[in-house]
Write a structure and sequence with these properties.
By secondary structure, the chain is an alpha/beta fold. It has 2 domains: 241 residues, 3-Layer(aba) Sandwich (Aspartate Aminotransferase, domain 2), CATH 3.40.640.10; 148 residues, Aspartate Aminotransferase, domain 1 (Alpha-Beta Complex). 37% of the residues lie in helices and 15% in strands. It is built from 16 helices and 14 strands. The strands form 3 sheets. A 7-stranded mixed β-sheet has the order 1-7-6-5-4-2-3, with helices on both faces. A 5-stranded mixed β-sheet has the order 8-9-12-11-10, covered by helices on one side. The longest helix has 20 residues. The N terminus and C terminus are likely disordered.
Length: 459
């Protein structure tokens, strides 16, 4: 897997006609009187009827809306199913759980998104649902946990934030030996471009479209896809009855984001793999967790069920929480922020941010320690991302406080200028150097990764 992208060796081949479907499905200009190539945004909340009780297709926007209908048709095509859109990923989860009844049991993967964990731990379990957390990377553990009261198995793969990969097909085989149990898979970290859970045996595919599907960090939305008509009708009723639907404008924005999903995911994969390899070789990093690396424990599973890997990864920095926080505070290109899947690169500290609500002992058991850092690698230039990570890692060890996002990125080209200026000033010793050039301050410590840029002029 040296050259990521379409047709990555060892991975599933890309899904056919993905880009064409994302651009054209459900959006034929002929359906609009104007012939508009870009679907119009329908903000109306109500629709005129021909006569009392006689309507065309739409009645009230909570029941259905042209803008939402287009988005649902596109997502359904990409997932290979029928789709429904919701106001958030957690709203989608809530709708799925309303398929259950008092006393039913849910089996949830033990390592999941913090909001999912919070919902199951503090909401569902207090509203007459029994929730059991199981390591579903081991199908035998899943099999042992299923009881006659089990009605839903909730998987997330890769998991967030420790990037465990679950064999969806193996779990589907286990679940479907028990009639009446549904298998739902959170596909937020992969998107339909890299993974199609329904084709692997899942009954329900849920995605936080806020993440990669929209891809621009400006829409809050969730989507559900199913390929069973009865299940679709049940969820369609709940969508209307519970009312957690997205706005027409958000549907338009997400639909717009889907047009470039195939392009973005290829670059997320490329940059993500480059960052993962860089971190893996860095002296300040203890361990890197990225499904696209050969050393990942479920690398073979990843190749079997995915056509590629996204830009999300986690790593353990050497040292303690002070080093982790210093690293985050010294980043310049990466923004210190929660969420993932946007065009911009983000970094966060799960133990104090996204997964703070998870009990501390549970976090420790899952490997969400004080030195774990999660990255969402964006679409910036690869060399800039690597340089930013390197300078922040070095600053984390030296104890420089830093301010997130307020400095000038330490970029390879700038380092060459700094090195030359430092040499001219007689600062030819190995170690710290500081150069004031054109009113901009640069500070760095040469590491093995950047020494090659500095050595010809500085040493």
């Amino acid at each position: 897997m040296d050259q990521p992208g379409a047709g990555t060796p060892g991975f599933l081949p890309p899904f056919k006609h993905f880009a064409t479907s994302a651009i054209h499905s459900g959006q034929e200009p002929e359906q609009w009187r104007s012939g508009a190539v870009v679907p119009p945004i329908s903000v109306s909340t109500t629709f005129k009827q021909r006569a009392p009780g006689e309507h065309t297709h739409y009645v009230y926007t909570r029941f259905g809306n042209p803008s939402r209908h287009i988005l649902e048709e596109v997502v359904g095509t990409l997932d290979g199913a029928q789709s429904l859109a919701y106001s958030s990923g957690l709203a989608a989860l809530l709708n799925i759980c309303h398929l259950l009844k008092t006393g039913d049991t849910v089996i949830c993967m033990d390592d999941v998104y913090g909001g999912t964990n919070r919902y199951f731990q503090k909401v569902a379990s207090e509203n007459n649902l029994k929730v059991v957390f199981v390591d579903c990377t081991k199908p035998k553990c899943l099999e042992a946990a299923i009881t006659p009261k089990t009605k839903l198995v909730w998987l997330e793969t890769p998991t967030n934030p420790t990037l465990k990969v679950i064999d969806i097909q193996a779990c589907a085989d286990v679940v479907h030996r028990h009639p009446g149990v549904l298998l739902a898979v959170d596909n937020s970290l992969m998107s339909p471009y890299f993974q199609r859970p329904l084709s692997l045996g899942a009954d329900i595919c849920m995605s936080s479209a806020t993440k990669y599907m929209n891809g621009h960090s400006d829409v809050l939305m969730g989507v559900i896809s199913v390929n069973d008509e009865d299940l679709y009708n049940q969820l369609k009723f709940l969508q209307s009855a519970l009312g957690a639907v997205p706005s027409p404008f958000d549907c338009y924005m997400c639909n717009r984001g889907l047009k470039t999903l195939h392009i973005r995911m290829k670059l997320h994969f490329h940059n993500g793999l480059a960052v993962a390899k860089f971190l893996k070789s860095h002296r300040r990093v203890e361990k890197v967790i990225y499904p696209g690396l050969h050393c990942h424990p479920q690398y073979e599973v990843t190749k079997k069920q995915n056509s590629g890997v996204s830009g999300v990864m986690s790593f353990y920095i050497k040292g303690n929480i002070k080093n982790a926080l210093a690293f985050l505070n010294n980043l310049k290109v990466f923004a210190l922020a929660e969420s993932l899947g946007g065009y911009e690169s983000l970094a966060e500290h799960p133990a104090t941010m996204t997964h703070k609500s998870v009990p501390e002992d549970v976090r420790e058991d899952l490997g969400i320690t004080e030195t774990l850092i999660r990255l969402s690698v964006g679409l910036e230039d690869e060399e800039d991302l690597l340089a930013d990570l390197d300078q922040a890692l070095e600053a984390a060890v030296s104890g420089v406080p830093g301010h997130p996002g307020n400095g000038i990125p330490v970029l390879p080209a700038q380092l060459r200028v700094c090195a030359a200026a430092a040499a001219a000033a007689g600062l030819g010793h190995k170690g710290w150097f500081l150069v004031l050039l054109s009113g901009l301050s640069f500070s760095s410590h040469p590491s093995p990764q950047l020494k090659i840029l500095i050595e010809p002029t500085l040493f």
